[in-house]
Amino acid sequence: MLRSALQWLSPAGVRARLSVLIFHRVLARPDPLFAHQLDARRFDEICGWLGEWFNVLALDDAVRRLRSASLPERALAITFDDGYADNHDHALPILQRHRFPATFFIATGFVGAGTMWNDIVIEALRRTSLSSLVFALPSGAQRTLRLDGVESRRAAIATLLGELKYLPAAEREAQARAIAARAKVDPPADLMMSREQIRRLRRAGMQIGAHTVSHPILAKLERGLAERELAHSKAFLEELLDEPVVLFAYPNGKPGQDYGADDVALVARVGFECAVSTAPGAATRHSDCLQLPRFTPWDRGKGRFGVRMARNLWTPRPTSAAAIAR
Questions:
Q1: Three-class SS of residue 59?
Q2: CATH class of the 2-113+190-318 domain in this structure
Q3: Which of 27, 47, 48, 31 lies closest to 39, judged by CA?
Q4: Which pLDDT band, with edges at 50, 70 and 90, does 320 fall under?
Q5: Where are the domains of the chain?
Q6: Distances (CA, A) of 86 to 20, 105, 107, 276, 325
Q7: Does this model's pTM top 0.90?
Q8: Rounded distance, CA 210 to CA 226, Å?
């Protein structure tokens, strides 16, 4: 029944719709702090459902076939953002077992021993032995955050990430490291993929795309700095892989909030041919290839997951750059 509904919503040819899924981490085992975080067993289960319902294609191939009206029915592409080492260690073997291609978007400034600002905050509050933490808000006010249990630590993390997310990148990084210092925790240095792990993904048939250097909110950057973030991440990966890199993912990815029309123009000028956002919906042959929508259901049950995928296929998306990222 669900497969038939998906086929009606996502037919082959001229009326085709492409679903693009977005993932980040795939942990070895469930995270007691974040129950929603994807682990290997859960990802394997989801891949089983996808194999039953969809035709999984590489992103660049899917986009070419979408534009040429040759996309198969129930087409879907899988993507991962940021470049976590667990993508190589846990996601890759599962993808290979299901014979699925996927695209991995790498924030190149963290390759090797780097740690993203949000992970500095998360791991500081996860690992600290303190029962509370005084945080100085960007406004100058101070707030005491409780850390005396799983729920309070989860709430404190959400508060800090919300406060820091839209700060300038350098200030955001400095604030995150100051929080780690006050929590008396050294940030981990093994969360992100190494150069060799990225090469192994590519040799395994996976696609590699760029995700900027430092994962900034592009809409907050001066134009010259935004262009450098795009161009340098592209150049890093092209040198690493010795091939063109033409796929890009907008950091955070909300159209009109995290990036705008000027950023879309920059993406094209730097030489990317396809880019993905985090706006929900499915792409059609009229969609802007530099702003493809992505969506992943959060439901744990198979039926609800599938129904939400079907609803997402029904979601109309604007087709022009001006309409999406204004």
A1: helix
A2: alpha beta
A3: 27
A4: very low
A5: 2-113+190-318, 117-183
A6: 21, 14, 15, 22, 32
A7: yes
A8: 13
